[in-house]
């Protein structure tokens, strides 16, 4: 019996190096065992606008190839063009905060409190301003898993303010309207982290300007509770629910540049967009 030829499976590892599958398996995670929640930066996935620093060649934050409407990962600096590349996310958790800024710089983030906006006045740009001069931004944050082209999930944050608050409500309503059947035939709302959503960006405008906004389309359910993506998304959800992972909204402005809406609005009782 002749000697059997054994072929090693080779996989591509970004950014392009080739290694044999399992080459470092026996040392998996070595050197990273002591990492805690304060040691890792969860990236924000933002939409680049025409005035984003990553788009301007004259800015120190310029990224080669960056264009208005692309998605930008604030940690990896990766650019994603949703016009040419399909992007899917799994929503894992949702939070709402009021973010205070002064002169465009972050001051603090708070849980939503109607008393905060009650003390503000609207300026000529429809911004909510406190007596001390701080601007209050109503901010909706989604904790998501972003799937790469191989379906491997990685955590990220999507924040929506101003013009995009309506989008956050619409997306929450879309998720709430999803229904599956129990074994007894009754309907139930599946967990947020059971679904995949295709993410794109769309052109929008109002009387104050134009910008690129979010769009989400349901792309089906994960394979089940043993799906590795579901397991990872569920774990991320549980970390957020336990307070082990918290959004640092002082970093949320990187790459942002939305046009202001006509105000945040005092809708404290309902985060969902009611369809008509």
Please provide a written account of the structure.
The chain is built from 3 helices and 15 strands. It is mainly beta and 276 residues long. It has one domain (48-251). The radius of gyration is 21 Å and the shape is globular.
Summarize the structure.
This protein has 276 residues and is mainly beta. 12% of the residues lie in helices and 33% in strands.
List the helices and strands and how they pair.
Blueprint: E1 10-13, E2 17-20, E3 45-47, E4 71-73, E5 79-80, E6 88-102, E7 105-110, H1 114-118, E8 121-122, E9 128-129, E10 135-147, E11 153-161, H2 165-177, E12 180-181, E13 187-188, E14 195-206, E15 209-221, H3 228-241
Antiparallel strand pairs: 1-2, 3-4, 4-5, 6-7, 6-10, 6-14, 8-9, 9-10, 10-11, 12-13, 14-15
- Rg is 21 Å
H and E order: EEEEEEEHEEEEHEEEEH
**Which secondary-structure class do the elements indicate?**
mainly beta
What share of the residues does DSSP label as strand, in percent? 25-35%
| Residue-averaged pLDDT | 84
What oligomeric state do these chains adopt?
Answer: single chain
Q: Classify the helix fraction into a percent range.
A: 10-25%
Task: Count structural domains.
Answer: 1
Q: How many helix segments?
A: 3
Distance between the termini: 74 Å
Main pleated-sheet profile: 8 strands, antiparallel
